[in-house]
Design a protein that fits this description.
This protein is of the alpha/beta class. It is 43% helix and 10% strand.
Length: 328
């Protein structure tokens, strides 16, 4: 696989953090204007997790994402112009406008899809890791999910298979403290780490607002998995600065205090990363990203809407061959 994002240097990682942040801010504006219908789940605040984990991956590795997946796919190397067109439902979008915000995929980059079903990416990642091992490929699969997935049976089943078969899977829990509006401490008995440890999976917690801390932990887990050490679990303790979904702005939900949000904003991963490269260089990269996203928006808005006559296209598989011995 080629075309994955280069995240080898502090400058490259800062630029990606800025790209994800600015992309999401741009998308919020397009939701408000009506260009993006149905809304999005903003990733603002959690950028360090996507960048840190993807910095640890090799070009041939694979990942599965979540309903809050823009940061993951951008950090892996997706063209922001095509992703923005996808969010706007245009034919030049990443998936021809048919996947939208919650189902972006690019198999060429090893992105097996974002997923609107909580925890549903985990078994896909396990299957990909198993298939790669059967083929003799030194591939690692990453499954991103939130704290709201910790009680999903499919995630625990995925833990079990990965542990039993010692598969090269990295499970990444983005614990932002809330499953929609439900605080994690009122929903999860025990702990996130305890979930994985119960299956004998190596588990660690990391500051999910620190890109370098996430990268270091992910590199260790990925290297171990690639060498046959079995699955690993990272709990990245992070925070979303925006609501669960853009609909919250209309609903005016009140489940977090302003003081709580402000306290987490003081841990914003972007200023941390900017400090490592200097204010002047960070400003130069900010300007590059601004220009790139302006071009991306022009691309998305210039792309046509799909022809309604093709609405049923791709709903059903065609041209499939039955396996040997199957009754047709």
């Amino acid at each position: 696989m080629t075309g994955t994002a280069a995240l080898d240097t502090p400058e490259q990682r800062y630029r990606m953090l800025r790209l994800i942040r600015s992309f999401e801010e741009q998308a919020l504006g397009l939701v408000k204007s009506g260009v993006i219908t149905g809304g999005i789940h903003p990733y603002i605040g959690q950028e360090a997790v996507a960048v840190g984990v993807c910095a640890a991956l090799a070009p041939g590795d694979r990942l599965t994402s979540t309903h809050r997946g823009h940061g993951h796919v951008l950090a892996r190397g997706v063209d922001p112009a095509r992703l923005l067109a996808e969010l706007a439902g245009r034919v030049d979008g990443l998936n021809r406008g048919r996947g939208g915000s919650m189902h972006a995929a690019d198999l060429r980059l090893g992105i097996l899809g974002a997923n609107g079903i909580v925890g549903a990416g985990a078994p896909i990642a396990v299957g990909a890791a198993w298939a790669a091992r059967q083929a003799g490929e030194p591939t690692v699969a990453v499954a991103f999910f939130g704290d709201g997935a910790l009680n999903q049976g499919v995630l625990l089943e995925s833990f079990n298979l990965a542990a039993m078969w010692r598969l090269p899977v990295l499970f990444v829990c983005e614990n932002n403290g809330y499953a929609t509006t439900l605080p994690a401490e009122t929903a999860v008995a025990g702990s996130a780490l305890g979930r994985a440890a119960a299956f004998g999976i190596q588990a660690a917690a990391v500051d999910g607002m620190d890109t370098e801390a996430v990268r270091t932990a992910a590199e260790q887990a990925v290297a171990r998995a690639r060498e046959g050490g079995g699955p690993a679990f990272l709990e990245c303790r992070t925070y979303r600065f925006e609501g669960h979904h853009t609909m919250e702005r209309r609903m005016k939900l009140n489940y977090r205090s302003a003081e709580e949000v402000d306290a987490w904003r003081e841990q914003d991963p972007l200023p941390r990363a900017a400090a490592a490269i200097g204010a002047d260089r960070a400003a130069e990269l900010d300007a590059e990203v601004t220009a790139e996203l302006a071009a991306a928006e022009r691309f998305a808005l210039d792309s046509p809407h799909p022809d309604p006559a093709g609405a049923a296209d791709h709903l059903y598989a065609s041209g499939l061959r039955p396996r040997a011995g199957a009754v047709t």
